[in-house]
Design a protein that fits this description.
By secondary structure, the chain is mostly helical. It has nine helices and no strands. The longest helix has 18 residues. The two termini are 20 Å apart. The relative contact order is 0.07. About 3% of the residues have low confidence.
Amino acid sequence: QEKSLQCFDYAKTQGHTGFAINHLRGKVLTYTGPIEEAAKSLEAAIHFKPDSGSTHWSLAVLDQDVGRRERVSRLESVFSLGGMESLDEQFLNNAMFREYDRLNETDKAWTHLVLACEQRRKEVKYDAALENRDFDALIEASMFLKHYDEKAQPFDKSATPIFVVGMPRTGTTLLERMLGNYDEVQPCGEL
């Protein structure tokens, strides 16, 4: 991650200061810190592409109180333009949800969350049978995996698998590591 930041910074010295450089640099800084620097890079990306839903969402996730009202006003302005791609609109609605939620304006927040979910549902086709086959294949494959832990015991086919799923940065990795500390649980890492 540090090397990627060096690459982004070098690219900037070479005159590459557009949307992609700033957006990607902001994303890396989101995970490595400092958060204020991530916010600056994301703001710079928005300057180049004001309707980038994923950039607005990334900025909202930083959860900065300073400038929240201004970000909401800017998001409302972007919505008023219309004509954006569906994915950008989904991200923008998620960003609006996040910002309004932090302002304790729950009615407006939930309106945007519902819109984002409805938009997503239109695009994602859920097939329960396919999902069951995928999970069965994962379970079967995990029976044969060699694990990193030296104390790992051979799999008991009657064992019940535990799948830890969640959105990024919600504690799933921490939970997997905590569960993996028990002798009865064999972590497989992130899939």
